[in-house]
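Reader question, answered in our methods column.
A reader sent in the components of a multi-part assembly and asked whether the whole thing could be modeled at once rather than chain by chain. We filled in our standard form and ran it. Here is what they sent:
COMPLEX SIZE: two components
ENTRIES:
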Amino acid sequence: MRKEVDEMLTPEKISKIDKSCIHLKYLKWPEYFFEALRADVNFPEVTEVDRIILAGMGGSGIVGDVIRDWLAPSRGLPIHVVKDYHLPGFVDKETFVVAISYSGNTEETLGIINEAISRRCALAVISSGGLAEELSLKLNIPHTKIMSGLPPRAAFPLLFVCTALVMQKSELIEAGEDLYESGETLKQLGNLLTPEMETEKNPSKRVAIWLHGALPIIYGSCLNGSVVLRFKGSLNENAKTHAVADVLPELCHNDLVAWDLDLELPRKAVFVRFVGEPPEVRERFDAVKEQIEGTSSEVYEVWPPGESHLSRILSAIYLLDFASIYLAVLRGVDPTPTKSIDKMKRRLGVKLRYLETYTDLPLKPPSR
Amino acid sequence: MRKEVDEMLTPEKISKIDKSCIHLKYLKWPEYFFEALRADVNFPEVTEVDRIILAGMGGSGIVGDVIRDWLAPSRGLPIHVVKDYHLPGFVDKETFVVAISYSGNTEETLGIINEAISRRCALAVISSGGLAEELSLKLNIPHTKIMSGLPPRAAFPLLFVCTALVMQKSELIEAGEDLYESGETLKQLGNLLTPEMETEKNPSKRVAIWLHGALPIIYGSCLNGSVVLRFKGSLNENAKTHAVADVLPELCHNDLVAWDLDLELPRKAVFVRFVGEPPEVRERFDAVKEQIEGTSSEVYEVWPPGESHLSRILSAIYLLDFASIYLAVLRGVDPTPTKSIDKMKRRLGVKLRYLETYTDLPLKPPSR
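And here is the structure of the entire assembly that came back:
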């Protein structure tokens, strides 16, 4: 039986279905991470700032969620994550905005850059190029350029590290040893996630096999909402499956009830646990597990490695992103192409041309 | 055919399955709304406040999301919604905290009250009684008491209006005519949602019939994320089904891809649209609809009535909550009982006893 399962995810089979070799790009994550740690990032001079906006969409926007989770317990400035065309009404010149768009052509994020300029915010931009870079050069906005040519989700370590460095060099956060330790954790974990590593020792393969054929129900906690959200996104993009993503304690007030019915529905729960969870979180996980197992399903628990809160967040993302690639293989679908997103971008590209003709500052903002 | 469909949701059938008559409580929403508008609310004296925290869980916590959506475009103070045991690290005495717990015994919200006291925040508490009330009376915290005896989700108008009034009387927000107009909209809409109203004219019955037998995929926009989240919660609690809830533009970067595969999966999309959406939102909805319809499913669009942004948010919640009750009827399950939540509460009740023995200020906080 074990042999049979292992043969579902052999290096040969993986290479055959993962035609664009996204798994090879993911294998380079530790390398990307340390490269980015040595990068020269550009940041604005910050004088009076009392809040931070991290703006971006999809694989770029998740960086904001991760940074918010990481710093939530610390005494720093409040962080707002914006995944929208517009800045919230309260944003003014005392706001520090980091606009992150891997392609540099994300319609929403270009809108945010535009509004941040109008409102005279302290602004930094991160992209691999595109209009965001052009605009930044033209308008003297500090821009950090990262390596291009990756699917945005595969560029996560570059996007994350550069954003963290921009915040640190602006003296808005104090990363300490967390970044270096996280890179080391990714390096060690990466060895376990490779196609060559057999299923029994490969946590990503195990999650993929667990989820195959089921609707994934991903539960995390208030410590790692960003991980749960990212895993949902990776399941959507790589494995082309819907997924339910929720965090406790909130899910104990609603999603949990859904397990009482639909006992025949093929659904499987994955819990994202963290070593060192506070007792109230541990207690809730235990209770939820007991209740789910009392209805229709076993529960699979993932315990990502890492010493710091940040390294656990990042190693969980690494492990689960790889799981979404292996799930794509099990489903016989190439993880790289995202047909619908490409189609959407082509359609919106027509609209975006107005931004190419910018001559004035501020640009014409999207209407509201 | 129409007659056949109508007969699935007759007043008789509804009353037979909705044994605890939650639909009668929902029919009273306009009444609750105007009653609450006349309520005496209690609020702290606010001097130097630069941010607002709205804290609560489930049917109480959604109030924060609604208020944030409502006020997002306005120039007021930043609002943070907290659904957790703990306040974020940045919270200090310049923070205004409203703690909302319908029962007054919600573990998480009691933890928040406790931390807000320790950090010397401006604090207001809203509950129908419970420990939150006891504690408030004992410690001279402004407490607003609302009618008890409802399932928390059915008490939404009471919770929402009282929270808005607390914020308004503290001069933190300017509600203007929005509240009154919203009450009027709910009153008119209520007439269409009753069990007696035939399916063709009853938007809630139509949504329920649309979703019956499928996994609900609920898509809204950056204007109404709170509505989408609330509908997910109501589907969980009333209809006992999982659901995927997402908002655009973000969903265009991930969830959309999932429609490309699983063409045989019984899933149905509901879009929550708003009259007067800005063009970039309308454009995205059109594009997403086109793509979904190009794969596996038609799309059902809900256009809630209302003149103001707030009244559209509230009427959407009313319409969709009723839909979740009708879906429960179609699924043959009593919408009121939430077995898992009750079981969870009993389990946690043992732990909560420590709060009953409070003698000192601050209380012993949950660990982190």
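What stands out: Confidence is low (pLDDT under 50) at residues 356-362, 364-368 of chain A. Chain A touches chain B through 74 residues (CB under 8 Å).
Send us your own complexes using the same form.
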